[in-house]
# Entry
Amino acid sequence: MKIADQTVVLINYTLTNNDGEIIDSSQGRSPLAYLHGAGNIIPGLENALIGKDIGEELTVTIPPAEAYGELDPEMIQPVPRDRFGGVETIEIGMQFQANTPQGPRIVRVVAVDDANVTIDANHPLAGQTLNFAVSIVGIRQATPEELSHGHVHGPDGHHH
Ligand code: ZN
# Structure
């Protein structure tokens, strides 16, 4: 069986940035299980896996547009300090959940001065080219229930 829409795929992977730093890896964990064709993983990786078979290994370089998008400067904005009432010390690198027109988002503090806190609501991997080393360790047909939910069930998927 080859990877196609409506298959459940199990992969081991290591994700590095262009400096060679490891950002994420399945090493030491169960393989990642995803439903192919359902947008469970970033588009560039999903496209690279189409037609692959169990046992195949590949390395894929994915530009930001096919990964977590370009960095959007408009999502980096100063917010008056008094909007952070109750937080005594605000430092660069802190994360907060903010309600945005696109729904709740994790934002990171990137600058602080006496009046304002500058927050960045971009995805932490926005603007980055991602390098995946992937090995395919399982492929099976998705169940009707998985297809209707749009995600994988079972030991490595959702439990509900
Ligand atoms: Zn489900």
